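Weekly modeling sync, notes
Attendees: AB, CL, MP (scribe)

Item 1: holo prediction request
CL wants a bound-state model with nicotinamide-adenine-dinucleotide before deciding which constructs to order. AB pointed out that an apo prediction alone won't tell us much about the pocket. Agreed to run with the ligand included and paste results into these notes for async review.

Input as submitted:
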Amino acid sequence: MEFTKNILITGGAGFIGSHVVRLFVNKYPNYRIINFDKLTYAGNLSNLVDIETKSNYCFVKGDICSIQDLSDVFTTYQISDVIHLAAESHVDRSIEGPMEFVMTNVVGTVHLLQKAKENWSDGNHVFHHVSTDEVYGSLGEEGLFQETTPYDPRSPYSASKASSDHFVRAYFHTYGLPVKMSNCSNNYGSHHFPEKLIPLIIHNIVNKIPLPVYGKGENIRDWLWVEDHANAIDVIFHQGRLGESYNVGGLNEWKNIDLVKYLCKILDKKLNREEGENEKLITFVKDRAGHDARYAIDATKLETELGWKPSIQFEEGLEKTVDWYLQNQDWVEKVTSGSYKEYYERMYK
Ligand code: NAD
Ligand code: DAU
């Protein structure tokens, strides 16, 4: 079959990447989707078992920091477009060891930009860079992040993502590379690695392990259903303007402690435990260094210009998420064995 596009999706075996790969493979049979992933601790091909035999999908194990790996995949598959999600994504790990974040998120992104520039001679391509709202820093009680909010990253993770965003813009302005960018708030949903708050709390409740809440649990995050993020990427990739950034978020702010208590309640019922039993597991632990107080996204540009909207209410999405974890304990077992145990021990004991 002749494909109309050969799209390289980096980080397609990760949490958000696997949802983006699935959406594109199922929705666009005339595109070939090449999932390019190093399979770090966060990458897992079992996230994609349902689509792995589709004729418009293939997986290539590779590292965005390797010029050879990138040359091979661009040549073999005649890559026409890139959706770039590969990254080190966990703030706590970036505090423990920033260099890995510089290498993958900054150096790897520049290698990828350079490879696209070398291979694309006309403007008929798209390089979509997927980024985060954390580049804007931390909000007080009022206000929302807009696309025009000045960058003010405060963790090694957000500094590395901000740097990658700057390089993407630099390739647009300097070399005319056809880039688009999106900056999204906290995602939740299935296949979320249990180092992040929501899957970690679900996992610990199931196993009756203490629920670690940083500081007083007063920090606020703006949560978005991961499939709504994937839909936003689809819309921006196809209809967004070149050189533009689009904020993605659901106006769904939760204090960490309220969210943890809400998960406790849902799981009291689902696990047939007494009301309030899970809440007893909540443990306030040492705060994250430089912990950003509040994130909240204004997605008006994406909504008015491209007609995107979140599809699902948080309560419904969270219940679906909890059900997915309860029904996929084998997946949880697999990803929490081995190095996760050492990580957990280091972080929380
Ligand atoms: P994740 O950690 O779940 O997955 C990252 C994926 O990248 C993994 O499959 C991993 O194997 C792969 N990877 C890492 N280093 C690589 C390398 N050198 N070469 C090739 N592949 C490599 O991350 P996620 O939460 O799915 O986030 C995906 C992207 O979205 C990231 O760029 C992140 O900054 C951004 N983002 C995440 C969120 C969120 O809430 N999780 C919100 C906004 C933006
Ligand atoms: O805002 C988008 C970002 O959201 C993404 O760019 C990042 O890749 C993603 O990891 C996420 O970052 P956060 O640091 O906000 O997510 P995390 O799930 O690690 O933490 C959410 C909140 O919960 C944060 O305020 C810290 C707190 N927390 C987290 C963990 C892991 C706890 O209180 N206890 C915990 O054990």
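Recorded for review: DSSP finds twelve helices and twelve strands in the chain.
Action items: CL to compare against the apo run; MP to circulate these notes.
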